[in-house]
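W.,

You were right to be curious about this one. When I first looked at the sequence I had no strong expectations either way, so I just let the prediction run and decided to look at it fresh. Below is the sequence, 510 residues in total, followed by the output.
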Amino acid sequence: MDRARPALLLAAYVFVSLATRAVLLRVPIIDVDESSYAVASWAILRGAALYHDVADHKPPLVYLYYALAQELLGRGMLSVRILTTLVVLPLTALGLSAFYRHSRAGALAGLAYLLYGSAFIGHDMLAVNCEVLLLLPATWALVLVGTPPLSRRALGLAGAGALLGVATLFKHQAGLWLPVPLVAAWTAGASEGRAVSLRRAALVLAGFALPLAACAGYFAWRGTFSDFVYWNLTHNLRYAANPIRAEEAERRAAVNLLPFLVVTGPLWWIAWRARHALPSAHAARVVWGALALAVLSAAIGFRFYPHYFVLIEAPLALAAAPGAVALLDPPRRPAGRLLIGWTAAMTVAWAVANLAIYARADIEEETRPAFRDVAALLSADRCRPGASLFVWGYAPMLYYTADLPMATRFLFLESTLVGYIPGNAGSLRGSVDTARYIRPEHWDWLMDDLARRPPTYVVDTSTARIHHWQRYPLSSYPRLWSLVSRDYERLGSVDEVQVYRRKGCACEGR
């Protein structure tokens, strides 16, 4: 292999990544989760304790990644997008290429990941979500066990496990890929005896446990281990056990999963047709095992959010790449032209569609003018210097656009406070009983936060029908409404959002 080839491929991947993601590069917030990660990263940079002072049910590395990007490149989402577009995505594509030792199949695998990874709903595919970030270490974990010789190396096996452990600290679904290196380690040593296979599998498990143990030890040292366990394990298990009705799951699959399968259809067809074209049975176990587990992870909770499908893109590209090489050989030019044409059409069509969607303010919730307009009102208020904010609703975008510290730990107000379960319309209609999800102690936490750090402003989004919050009017929650009506005065209404300011907030004359 030409030693310059990986560098040339990386440069090409940087170009393709930038070309396919540039359409939304400067959009402030593409997906609601981005705003929560950014706001949490700001709190961490101010010294807040993750999961205690600022809490959400994602693992810690996504918040630290956002903080790192902004420390390196400046405050705001543009920095996160630039680092992801120019570094994370190209390196992930390079990992897919490395799986096939940067051969033609490897180059195509990386290219397919970048192109098809952008050719779908921008709200999910072009956002900097956990799935995009975890694929970087997870892909290189597959590289370390991609061949039998590699799967016999102790350092490589431990490294593969450690990389998957790191990936799991971006999002828990990465842990589902653990059987892939375990099976690779076991089968690679099968001819050497069971004891050897056990030792190699133990190396994978030890590597996987190392970053998780280090993370748990850190939170124990900070005195927030119980908070870490609750938000990462207890809460996530309840979130995964989504009490969704079958008809809703079928509707969500039809609206989200079916179009994704249509767009990526050629890759599935090529992968299945050329399933025997992979370099070895060992490589086939790694690739198809990762693909099957990625599909399984996308079905957790039957929410079928399109960003769940990001995990499918990488192993699907690996599975299709050898067959794509055969299709693109001169003897198979007609089929190859169809593949090239479909890929180009999907890439361009979705780029245009996503650009058009985010050019309007009435399609995606994250682009609603209300967030900008409320931020402008608060910015002009005489109490703005040194202020803090509490948002009643499912709208961390307001914390982001207002750029004010949160007065509570809760990035989202959802199941444990009001019974709303994201990705479950039945929880809104009342056809699913969510009373058991509400935790009275979380109301105690919320009220204690507001008592210890009285917010300068309270913003009520229920009156503006932002993210279904009209179903949870502030007046329906006596403890909170009593606090607001007693200690706050109405500052104004912006795009139907009600804004309150604390009485006597000592801002006269500022």
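Here's what jumped out at me. The chain is about 60% helix and 5% strand. And, maybe more interesting for your project: The mean pLDDT is 94.

Coffee later to discuss?

I.
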